[in-house]
Predict the 3D structure of the following.
Amino acid sequence: MDKKKVRKVREDSFGLLMKKVVLQIEKELNLRLADVGLNVKTFGIIMLLLEEEGLTQKELGTRTGVQDYATTRVLDSLEQQGLIERRPHPTSRRANLIFLTKKGQEQRGKLPKLIKGVNEDFLAVCNRDERKILQDALTKILDSRLLK
């Protein structure tokens, strides 16, 4: 295959396109999250805890798709910022349950709006039907991969 065809395959790659979109979203998210003292690595944990507190570190890592060592670092950072606290697990000496502090709970009024704003900005070039098609297609692709 000649160089032009290789380039065309690479440039038309669904994976490359998705990666470029994700990188742009992360860049914008980091800019906006900096205003509330968070970043892309920390906000996922806070969002999960806003939905459900009392999860273990392992559960948080699994649900966010973050390795154990990285989850520990993120939790350490959030604890130092006074956003979370670790409490002893009632049946396991090795595990802690993670809860938001009052300061962490204050993110409830900020993060969902921030995320919606980023989503809206990125999807502004699409009309309602295009957004629905895009979301349905991505959900279908993800669901098909999760079944394997």
In short: The chain has one domain: 3-146. The first strand starts at residue 55 and ends at 56.
